[in-house]
Amino acid sequence: LYNEMAEELKSKWNDDLDNTELSEFETVSQRSNSTYTDYKYAQSTHDGIIALKSGIGDIEKFVLLKDGLERKVFTPGPVNDAGMLSVANGKWCGMSFGMTRAGECEVIP
Q1: How many CB atoms lie within 10 A of CB 30?
Q2: Chain-centroid distance, C-alpha 68
Q3: Which of 10, 19, 20, 67 has a 20 to 30 A CA-CA distance from 104?
């Protein structure tokens, strides 16, 4: 029964893949090693893309990605990981337990 299910799903997934039209994309960060890294909540800004970077070899930090380069913008305290990051008018806001004021925002340098 398990093998039949696995074959049926494999066939369905292959059919789905054959009928999928891939969209264009742009690489915004080049991998420098094989360690897993995650870029969460990416938001477009006037000066690139800002995202929360984390992974096995990284302390969580907000980074700005532009022209294939990455620059650290801010290292927050413990992050309230509710999936919130807003960018508007040259400022970005995220939620961190270490922020001194609710909804504290930073100017994008």
Answers
A1: 8
A2: 15
A3: 67
Tell me how far apart the alpha carbons of residues 52 and 79 are, in angstroms, rounded to a whole number: 10
Q: Is the pLDDT of residue 13 over 90?
A: yes
- Structure token pair of residue 3: 């093998």
Burial class (CB in 10 A: 0-12, 13-18, 19+), 56: exposed
* The pLDDT value given to residue 101: 45
The tokens for 47 are 């000066």
> Beta strand pairing status for 85-88 and 69-74?
unpaired
pLDDT score of 91: 73
Task: Give the Cα-Cα-Cα angle 102, 104, 106 (nearest 5 degrees).
Answer: 170
Q: Are 49 and 43 in contact (CB under 8 A)?
A: yes
